[in-house]
């Protein structure tokens, strides 16, 4: 990596951690002007910064407001770089369908997981909130998702997660998708009971889980 | 199994005075589970204070716990200020849209009138009826959604979080009008013969930092608590999720009792602030109360007793947060029965 690349990637990363949208855009523009590879700038600059922000969140240095501001800076830089991504050389991404289950509109947790998944190189389809079980299944089939990620903060809506797993089984396609669950009232015990493939206690844990679930498939292929 | 020898009011009064009691106070925080007790749908509570009262009084009589709390969901204040709330036929209501879609509409926001706006009048009606029926034996409280949490329902939680960084004065404005709604409603609750019960989900360290709590939540909480103290009522404050870094501030805001969520450590809370405030908590509402068996509830209840029974300012055995609607009755009975069996002084 050239010195100038290294400096620009560091600026992108710092801009994200410092929640500085303007600086993220300025550094991204410089990447483009100098003809530096946009994919590497995203991965080694913006995403690296978001991972540092996630680390600060784990350490209770940052909280949800800071993480949201970091992600705003990351996406601002991303908007500049994305049109310059070369389609070749970018490996096929693992696909995730994510959403908050029907009857619940608390979506901060889901949004954080989405941001961190995108940061980690997953291709995320965000259905939003208050989503009926059938829509998760339909969308997962449509885009050929690897993972279905379900979120809720309310105990009243936990059962919707079980309904997604049941529908996959009824359609005979359960083994085509990994189902992961998370949110305030959810536990590993609940995940086991409904037959989900995994439970994550927070956004960072969700990334570890998602990576581990797609890793064996890669090894087999 | 032992039977209760005192009414909840007698028990709490004696406990507060350091006099002998038959058992520790116990509050599985029953919300919409009350609908199941009288066989109605959760959605039927909407706009029907008489039915809320009937269900809450029946639930109290069935289980024999120590505080009745008139509560259906967190959104009653925001709804009264213009937020859209969705009411599923038989599940807990949820926020469909904040009161304003755009900050340009912020001048439209007004404090709610508890006697006129949204479902607040019906909740007050439920309180008056509950007091009429059982007010001579048990305390009836009304749930108040505190300023910072209510502010998040006025503009949306994501937007509020960003405003904290980009426009702190806007957040203060939203908290201030929420506080005005809270004070008016708290006053009406007290006039109905009840006690306000404060709940502040978004002020949690699971969402904001202790420093942000100090800046945006604390000043308004303190003024709300000062008002309630001025009306000669004690204050229980519940903040969801992680709270260890703000316990001191919660005490400083004036709370008399902290309701500790299952994501926080009850033993640590006793060490940190148990000499200054009463504690309640913190059996896990979903993992234990909803999904567990009476035996898991018994073990979890005993674990709470072991951690906090000797809290200097007192301890109320409780769930860590409101119980899920479908919590099995046997599990609620099991919590009470465990506390009855432990007796006084507590054996566990």
UniProtKB/TrEMBL annotation, chain A:
SUPFAM superfamilies: Cobalamin (vitamin B12)-binding domain (SSF52242), Methionine synthase domain (SSF47644). Pfam families: B12-binding (PF02310), B12-binding_2 (PF02607). Keywords: Cobalt, Metal-binding. InterPro entries: Cbl-bd_cap, Cobalamin-bd, Cobalamin-bd_sf, Met_Synthase/Corrinoid, Meth_synthase_dom. Residues 1-93 form the B12-binding N-terminal domain. Residues 93-221 form the B12-binding domain. Coiled coil: none annotated. CDD domains: corrinoid_protein_B12-BD (cd02070). PANTHER family: METHIONINE SYNTHASE. This is Corrinoid protein. It comes from Geomonas anaerohicana.
């Amino acid at each position: 990596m050239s010195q100038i690349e290294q400096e620009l990637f560091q600026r992108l990363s710092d801009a994200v951690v410092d929640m500085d949208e303007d600086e993220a855009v300025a550094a991204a523009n410089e990447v483009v002007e100098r003809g530096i590879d946009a994919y590497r700038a995203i991965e080694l600059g913006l995403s690296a910064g978001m991972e540092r922000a996630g680390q600060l969140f784990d350490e209770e240095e940052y909280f949800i407001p800071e993480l949201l501001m970091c992600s705003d800076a990351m996406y601002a830089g991303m908007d500049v770089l994305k049109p310059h991504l070369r389609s070749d050389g970018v490996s096929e991404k693992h696909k995730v369908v994510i959403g908050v289950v029907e009857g619940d509109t608390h979506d901060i947790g889901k949004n954080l997981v989405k941001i961190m998944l995108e940061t980690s190189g997953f291709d995320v389809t965000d259905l939003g909130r208050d989503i009926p079980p059938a829509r998760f299944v339909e969308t997962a089939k449509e885009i050929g998702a690897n993972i279905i990620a379900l979120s809720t903060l309310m105990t009243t809506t936990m059962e919707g997660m079980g309904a997604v797993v049941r529908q996959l089984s009824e359609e005979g396609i359960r083994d085509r998708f990994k189902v992961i669950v998370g949110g305030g009232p959810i536990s590993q015990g609940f995940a086991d009971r409904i037959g989900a493939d995994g439970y994550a206690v927070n956004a960072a844990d969700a990334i570890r889980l998602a990576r581990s679930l797609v890793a064996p498939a890669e090894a087999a292929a | 199994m032992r039977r209760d020898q005192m009414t909840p009011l007698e028990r709490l009064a004696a406990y507060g005075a350091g006099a002998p009691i038959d058992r520790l106070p116990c509050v599985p925080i029953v919300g919409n589970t009350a609908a199941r007790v009288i066989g109605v749908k959760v959605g039927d509570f909407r706009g029907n204070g008489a039915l809320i009262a009937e269900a809450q009084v029946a639930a109290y009589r069935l289980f024999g716990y120590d505080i009745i709390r008139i509560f259906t969901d967190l959104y009653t204040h925001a709804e009264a200020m213009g937020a859209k709330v969705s009411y599923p036929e038989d599940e807990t209501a949820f926020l469909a849209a904040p009161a304003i879609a755009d900050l340009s509409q912020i001048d439209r926001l007004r404090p709610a009138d508890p006697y006129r706006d949204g479902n607040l009048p019906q909740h007050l009606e439920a309180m008056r009826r509950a007091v009429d029926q059982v007010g001579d034996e048990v305390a009836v409280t009304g749930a108040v959604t505190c300023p910072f949490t209510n502010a998040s329902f006025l503009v949306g939680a994501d937007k509020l979080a960003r405003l904290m960084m980009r426009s702190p004065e806007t957040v203060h404005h939203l908290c201030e009008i929420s506080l005005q709604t809270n004070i008016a409603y708290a006053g009406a609750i007290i006039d109905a013969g009840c006690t306000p019960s404060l709940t502040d989900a978004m002020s949690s360290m699971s969402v904001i930092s202790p420093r942000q709590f100090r800046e945006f939540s604390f000043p308004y909480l303190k003024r709300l608590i000062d008002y309630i103290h001025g009306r000669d009522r004690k204050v229980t404050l519940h903040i969801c999720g992680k709270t260890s870094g703000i316990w001191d501030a919660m005490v400083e805001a004036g709370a008399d009792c902290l309701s500790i969520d299952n994501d926080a450590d009850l033993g640590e809370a006793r060490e940190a602030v148990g000499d200054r405030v009463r504690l309640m908590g913190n059996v896990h509402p979903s993992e234990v109360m909803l999904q567990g068996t009476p035996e898991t509830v018994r073990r979890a209840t005993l674990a709470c007793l072991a951690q906090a029974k000797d809290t200097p300012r007192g301890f109320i055995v409780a769930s860590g947060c409101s119980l899920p609607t479908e919590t099995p009755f046997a599990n609620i009975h099991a919590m009470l029965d465990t506390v009855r069996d432990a007796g006084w002084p507590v054996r566990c």
